[in-house]
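Sample intake sheet
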Amino acid sequence: MSEWDGKSKGTLLGYKLFIFCIRKLGIKTSYVVLYFVASYYFLFLRKSNRAIFYYFYHRLGNSYLKSKMMVYKSYYTYGQTIIDRTAISVGMRDRFTYEFDGVDILHKLLAEKKGGILISAHVGNFEIAEYFFGEIDFDCQINLVTTDNEHTSIKEYLESISKKSKIKFIIVKDDLSHIYDINNALLNNELICFTGDRYFPGVKCLRSPILGEEADFPAGPFLIASRLKVPVVFVYVMKEPNLHYHLYAREAHTKHRDEKALLGVYIESVESILKKYPLQWFNYFDFWNKLKK
């Protein structure tokens, strides 16, 4: 199964170091530190190395040497998104430039006040989406459905220094009480935002090929989205050169109550993004369940 344990790597000291560098040295100078961090990951994190190498070599079809190089570049790019996310969250959003592609779709959803489903993936820098959405969501109509698995000390530290956004969060809980929060938000004609590419053990899944190989996807986002008579939009926030970000929004069109068809359209959408941004696939685990065999 393409399962993810819900936890990200990192220590409180590491986050404090990044924030110190960002504030004292600047964002681009902080990128220099990443050469050492990416080198450490590349040399010592065997499990995630195998997972991301499989993606570059077997799924994208790159040569062995190029795939190895792209593993390192992937870690470096991921580190950049972490620095960018931290910088934006502590009030340095004006250091970046932004491009909104399809934002008219989001404006329309908010103006109609009929609710809707947004589905993204762990590509690009989706974690900063709340700061994009905050600019167009003046009535706090967007709810991000997320996990709460970061180490408590890191979470508390980041919350203490971060600029608060106007986006609301629905935390996924073991007792499934988050389902009621989702239903209440939809009853209030608000927008619900999911990520559709990480399957947790014990949760119902849908199986479908992506990049030419079968993988498991969480059924929840696609079941909910396909059964409600509300618009469904795929959204991504992708990193470009020179502190520039590009937000994509694309409306999905499928039959009602056909979650498998919706998943298929979603996969096509993710694949099109990866074709343009191959280094920004940030699922560092055995996504296709091929490494244990």
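Comment: The CA atoms of residues 236 and 258 lie 23 Å apart. The two ends are 12 Å apart (CA to CA).
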